[in-house]
Every structure is written in structure tokens, then in C-alpha cells.
């Protein structure tokens, strides 16, 4: 990513510059293992290549003017994988933050992390804290890293926070409305995703943003995450721009002026 990217935020060429770019794109980066196995490589090679694609996706999102990019990097259920794969993924996250934080910061990217940090190794939790703290005043793309993230667990944490506030007498149970729940989630202050992309052809949420994706558009590219290049990202945005979002009303096309 070059330092000039933020200054040159332009709409993607795929849509001729007039249609709306999604403000928040959330990606389930799936298929690293299958990408590697299909090449006779160990699964870990797919994860390594996946990090390269993360850099490219962040850069592209910034370039086309997406404001929030959420990347599902490790789910609460991914602990079920063999210990060596889990260890490799933890190491990759550390490496990514160590190597890329300065660059992200230089590009005015603000990092947010969602997920349960309490269960993470202290060194990993500290690095995630550092990434957020170092970039908190940046005003460019917000990169939301979903790490040790599970939407059900996030909702449970939010419910507990609200219940504790009720127990302390700060709010009444009747004050709990949609906005109060949204504000108690890890994603507080982040607009809901407009577009959720899942690579690898799987068509499921796997415990990702269950609350926030209530009115998201979904795109399921067939390729694996390590194949998700700028063209594939552009096609997903073009798919989004051809959708009609109605939000329960009578709606208008995504690409038309409001
Ligand atoms: C996505 O790729 C990365 C993580 C879940 C961490 P996978 O590792 O799930 O790859 P497949 O789905 O097994 O091919
Ligand atoms: C979802 O992928 C989690 C991430 C991409 C981090 P999985 O590969 O873990 O999902 P399932 O097991 O196929 O549903
Ligand atoms: Mg998978």
C-alpha cells in the first residue's frame, strides 16, 4: 500500500464512477486450506498466501473509497482445528501486526478489533490493543479485524453488559432497544455492513455478524480467498451495485442517486 492511496480514493472502474460504493464491506475469508491442498501444498501455505491477499484487499478497499472493511480472521469455533494449525494462525496474526502496523498507520488506516480478547494469549491480546491504540485517531479506512470472533458470543457479551447496567439501576429494562443493543456490541459505532462477501463458494455465515448483517447484501464468489484479487473484489462490488435494497420498504436500486 502506498502512502498516497488515501489521497486518491476513487470509485472502482467497474461501475463507471456513478453508483454507490458500499460503505462497509465485511468478508469471510474462506478457502485457504483448499487453495493450498489443490496445489499439493500444506494448508498453512494457504494461510500465508491469505495474508498477502489481506494486504491487497485493504489497499483496494482504501483505493475505491470503502470506509469500513471487516475481515473474519479467526472464529470462536476455529479453536477446534488441530493445535499446530491454530498455532500457525496465531503466529500469522502476530506477524501481520508487527510487519504491517506501521504501514497501515502511515496510510491513515484505523484498526478496530472485534471478538473476545479475554481468551487470547497475553502477547496476542497486547498486540491487538497496540494496533487499536496506535491508529485510533486515524481518519481513513477503518479496518475491523474479527479475531476470536463469534457473533453469538458477542451478543451474549452485549446482553450481559446491558443486564449489568439494569442491575446497577443505570437504565430500565424498557430502555433496551435496537440502538442500545447495537451500542453494546463489539461493533459499537461501526455502521452495519452493506455487503458481506464469502469466498470459496460456501454459502453460510459461520457465526459472523449475525445481528449486524440483518440487511446486508450477500455475494459468494466461487474462488478461494487466496484467489480473491482486485478483479474479484471489483466484481463483488459490481454485483452489490446491481442489487435493489428495500429495507422492508419499496426501495430503489443501489446504484441510483437517493
Ligand atoms: C479460511 O480458510 C481461514 C480461516 C478459517 C482461519 P480455511 O482454513 O477455512 O480454508 P478451508 O475452508 O478449509 O479451505
Ligand atoms: C469461517 O470459516 C471463519 C473464518 C473465515 C475466519 P470456516 O472455514 O471456519 O467456516 P466453516 O467451518 O466452513 O463453517
Ligand atoms: Mg473454511
Topology:
Elements: E1 24-28, H1 32-37, H2 43-64, E2 68-75, H3 83-106, E3 110-114, H4 122-135, E4 142-149, H5 151-167, H6 178-184, E5 195-198, E6 217-219, H7 230-241, E7 244-245, E8 252-253
Parallel strand pairs: 1-2, 1-5, 2-4, 3-4, 5-6
Antiparallel strand pairs: 7-8
Helix pairs in contact: 2-3, 3-4, 5-6
The site of one 3-methylbut-3-enyl trihydrogen diphosphate has 11 residues, from strand 2.
Binding site for substrate: 31-35, 43, 47, 75-77, 79, 81, 198, 204-206
Enzyme class: transferase
GO biological process, one term: polyprenol biosynthetic process
Description:
There is one protein chain. By secondary structure, this protein is an alpha/beta fold. It has a domain at 24-150 and 192-243: Undecaprenyl pyrophosphate synthetase (3-Layer(aba) Sandwich), CATH 3.40.1180.10. 40% of the residues lie in helices and 14% in strands. The strands form two sheets. A six-stranded parallel beta sheet has the order 3-4-2-1-5-6, with helices on both faces. A two-stranded antiparallel ribbon has the order 7-8. The longest helix has 24 residues, at 83-106. The model is unreliable at 1-18 (pLDDT under 50). It binds 3-methylbut-3-enyl trihydrogen diphosphate (IPE) (2 copies) and magnesium ion (MG). One 3-methylbut-3-enyl trihydrogen diphosphate binds next to helix 1.
Amino acid at each position: 500500500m502506498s502512502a498516497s492511496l488515501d489521497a486518491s480514493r476513487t470509485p472502482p472502474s467497474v461501475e463507471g464512477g456513478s453508483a454507490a460504493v458500499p460503505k462497509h464491506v465485511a468478508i469471510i475469508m474462506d478457502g485457504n486450506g483448499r487453495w493450498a491442498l489443490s496445489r499439493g501444498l500444506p494448508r498453512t501455505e494457504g494461510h500465508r498466501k491469505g495474508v498477502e491477499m489481506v494486504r491487497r484487499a485493504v489497499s483496494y478497499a482504501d483505493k475505491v473509497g470503502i470506509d469500513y472493511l471487516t475481515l473474519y480472521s479467526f472464529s470462536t469455533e476455529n479453536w477446534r482445528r488441530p493445535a499446530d494449525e491454530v498455532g500457525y494462525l496465531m503466529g500469522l496474526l502476530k506477524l501481520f501486526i508487527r510487519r504491517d502496523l506501521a504501514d497501515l498507520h502511515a496510510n491513515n488506516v484505523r484498526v478496530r478489533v472485534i471478538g473476545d480478547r479475554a481468551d487470547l494469549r497475553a502477547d496476542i491480546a497486547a498486540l491487538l490493543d497496540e494496533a487499536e491504540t496506535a491508529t485510533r485517531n486515524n481518519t481513513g479506512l477503518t479496518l475491523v479485524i474479527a479475531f476470536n470472533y463469534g457473533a453469538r458470543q458477542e451478543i451474549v457479551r452485549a446482553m450481559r453488559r446491558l443486564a449489568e447496567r439494569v442491575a446497577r439501576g443505570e437504565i430500565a429494562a424498557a430502555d433496551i432497544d435496537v440502538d442500545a443493543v447495537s451500542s453494546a456490541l463489539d461493533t459499537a459505532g461501526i455502521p452495519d455492513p452493506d455487503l458481506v462477501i464469502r469466498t470459496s463458494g460456501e454459502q453460510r455465515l459461520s457465526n459472523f455478524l449475525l445481528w449486524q448483517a440483518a440487511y446486508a447484501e450477500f455475494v459468494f464468489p466461487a474462488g478461494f480467498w487466496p484467489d480473491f484479487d482486485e478483479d474479484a473484489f471489483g466484481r463483488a462490488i459490481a454485483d452489490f451495485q446491481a442489487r435493489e435494497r428495500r429495507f422492508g420498504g419499496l426501495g430503489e436500486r443501489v446504484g441510483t442517486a437517493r
